Amino acid sequence: MRPAFVKALFAGTIFTSAFLLFLVQPLIAKQILPWFGGSAAVWSICMVFFQVVLLAGYAYSDWITRRLGVRMQARLHVGLLLASLAFLPIVTSARWKPDGAADPTLWILGLLLGTIGLPYFLLSTTGPLVQSWVARTPWGAQVYRYFSLSNLASLVSLLCYPVLIEPRSTLLQQAWGWSMAYGVFVLLCAGTTLHVSRHWAVGTPAAVSDAPLADGAASKPRVADYLMWLALPALGSWLLLAITNHITQNVAAIPFLWVLPLSVYLLSFVLTFESDRWYRRAVFLPLAAVMLVLCAFGLQDDLGADLRTALPIYGVGLFALCMFLHGEMAGMRPASAYLTRFYLMLSLGGAIGGVSVGLVAPHLLPAYYELGIGLVLCALAAAVLWRRRRVAMAASLALAGCCAWFLALQVQDDATGARRMERNFYGTLVTLDTQREAPGDNVRQMYHGSVKHGEQFLAPDRRRDPTTYYGPGSGIGLAIAAAPAAPRRVGLIGLGAGTLATYGRAGDVYRVYEINPQVFELADSEFSFLADSRARIERVLGDARLALEREPAQAFDVLAVDAFSGDSVPIHLITSEAMDVYLRHLRPEGIVAFHVTNRFLALAPVVERIALAKGLHAALVHDEPSGVALRNTDWVLVARDPQVLARGAIGRATSAIAPIAGLRAWTDDFNNLFGVLK
Predict the structure, then answer these.
(1) How far apart are CA 292 and CA 285, in angstroms?
(2) Given a cut of 50, is residue 205 above it in pLDDT?
(3) CATH level 3 topology of 1-209
(4) What is the pTM of this model?
(5) Which of 192, 523, 558, 581 has its CA 20 to 30 A from that of 362?
(6) Radius of gyration of the chain (CA)
(7) Pick the CATH number of 460-676 from 3.90.1300.10, 3.40.50.720, 3.40.50.150, 1.10.760.10
(8) Rounded CA gap, 210 and 206, in Å?
């Protein structure tokens, strides 16, 4: 074969593997999100799984290149590639749906392993394994550019999914399309493997060669080198997940914000491993130092909580710090004999960072303090790097002390203002008391990240007053008031502080569906809406839709779907199939009330489109109440009979819904948040 064709074969194999590696991440995460309440934590758990399997792939590549000859490598790898085809298509089986309310972390990891485990493992082996083969070729001195190419492919894949793939295809089409593309990858990778085994096979493993690369050090790596290969990528991965958590839960509840940090993270790999010309210490070290302090300062100041300032601060901060971490790591890249070991340590470091933030931190830290800790660790890593330069080391230690001080202020501020702070798989819940000018207006509030989930007046004579999104003039207030005078049966999807229970009368039944057990606990211990309600309160712990699918018909007069203002929109609660479930539990003249108040997403047209597709009727109730405890709200009311929405106060309060051109009715198989961004 001509050298140009062989180069294209190697490059095509690496590019395809990296593209599919990152394309499957949002694809599979979107498939399983509905089964676990649509929580943003599902994405973090998926990221941890991908990093751990990536580590396993890199360990495999390191092992076979050191222990096996090239021909044996080829036989083993081609055999695994063929075996991985048994996992196709990558469509998650319904048997993985959870049937309880326990922490789903291990269940999610098992689901991912059983659905895409071997294909993802094989994709993760491709980069280091093929690069170890490239090192044998005449152009092997440029092998690290292939690592840059793989990260470029990952970046392209990541950006293509929400913009090009998701809006134009169903989940089933995406799964089959990915599976067919994986079949093409298997052919490419098998062809590359067989070509190498025929043209560059030798009797001993490649690792015995200690010939240096043009851009790699020839000396044998020291223990200190291995530790830095481990620590620097660990900190990069730590910052990636910590900043993603911070901006999606503490700054703005925009589901797409996870794309920005991951894109910045991959871009730093592309630049630092493509060529030494991109990472210049004179530029990035001062920038990283400034952004380190600014990011730490923002954790305890409004500057870091306002979307307009926080997004550029943490976006630029992540880029500068990842350029520093990955640039220093790229400068330590070794000779070809240690290439797979280098990638193994890089992957192990990434997995350690991901596991620390995604799995360990939620169980050890009461709130999102991992970002502040990560910033301190970055400064300490710089001190270790410059340990032979007294001035630089002193400056790094000073930066670490500064970041630690701001972290301490953040912890102190949280401890001073918060009554209760609880954290689990679903995020951090905080309750606090807010003092206002008039003592009678003082309230107790509940927050999930940056989103308020309810508040209650502290004055005993006002404890049963409806507040926030649930005033008498809101859509849900009008829907409950319009229900039959006989004892009402009301369903609530999403509890918050339990405010809606204040509308309960003697004989009424309010059935509450809540996925987070800590919400129930705080609603009971910190608020009295449930205890004070005259209605009988029934509780269902677990995902609302899964529970409703299993239950007999509940004959609700009103069903409130109040789950779309948090850190991640549970799309499975706002699809055509979900509407079918709601209708089965609704009386003929009942109302389904969707709470669509959201600063970033226009969800009212989505509900209307689903209603029209089902032959139902929908109307928007926009309420702008007066009073310190009530907020502007948008509720969409859906009913079978148009007269239900035209009578009395509801008819006078409803208005038309502004359409979105080209919007399709969302289903479990097709939905597109990108198309409803405000």
Answers:
(1) 10
(2) no
(3) Growth Hormone; Chain: A; (1.20.1250)
(4) 0.80
(5) 523
(6) 28
(7) 3.40.50.150
(8) 9
